[in-house]
Amino acid sequence: DALTVPEYLDEQLLLKTLASGLQVPRARIVSKQITRATANGDNYMSDVFRIEVHFINESDQAESAAPQTVSLVVKCLPNSGQRGPLIDEMRAFEKEVTMFQQIVPKLSAMVGAGGLFAAKCYYATTTPERMILFEDLKTLGFVTANRHAGLDYDHCELVMRKIG
């Protein structure tokens, strides 16, 4: 089916994300490609998109900065519709932002250099919609596990060793 891209996944959002999460205060977006990051129905509370952003870092001192590419995952939790009030009641967005902006960095520090605990949160906002923009771990070779299968013993042991 056709992909409907929300209007708020715009250049301003990408510029804020580059500045906040990647320390690129002055950038020029060359192009962007937005795709669905999950299949329809995979996420009950959110819509998830993958955005490949091609940009030029205008903060660089070089005369002709080479274009760079970053891949982002955007999790959108709608403010309206049937899901909005439930998200509000559960405080789901606030909890997730706290987890990724405060807890995950501490857990990542415990894992140590070279270790990866979770995707980095580059930017979170509530306007015009609730959104969290993450590092795209797919570019590092990670894949999404089958959530219906659950974790096997080896993966559970790995998590326990990392946080233990």
Key features of this structure:
alpha+beta, five-stranded antiparallel beta sheet, 4 helices
Strands across the major sheet, in which order? 1-2-3-5-4
User: How much strand content do the residues show?
Assistant: 25-35%
Tally of individual helices: 4
Low-confidence region ranges: none
Overall number of structural domains: 1
Question: What oligomeric state best describes the polypeptide chains here?
Answer: single chain
- The average pLDDT value, as a whole number, equals 86
What proportion of the residues is helical, as a percent range? 25-40%
Rg from C-alpha positions? 17 Å
Give the topology string: H per helix, E per strand.
HEEEHHEEH
What overall form do the CA principal axes indicate? globular
Task: Find the structural class using helix and strand composition.
Answer: alpha+beta
Main pleated-sheet profile: 5 strands, antiparallel
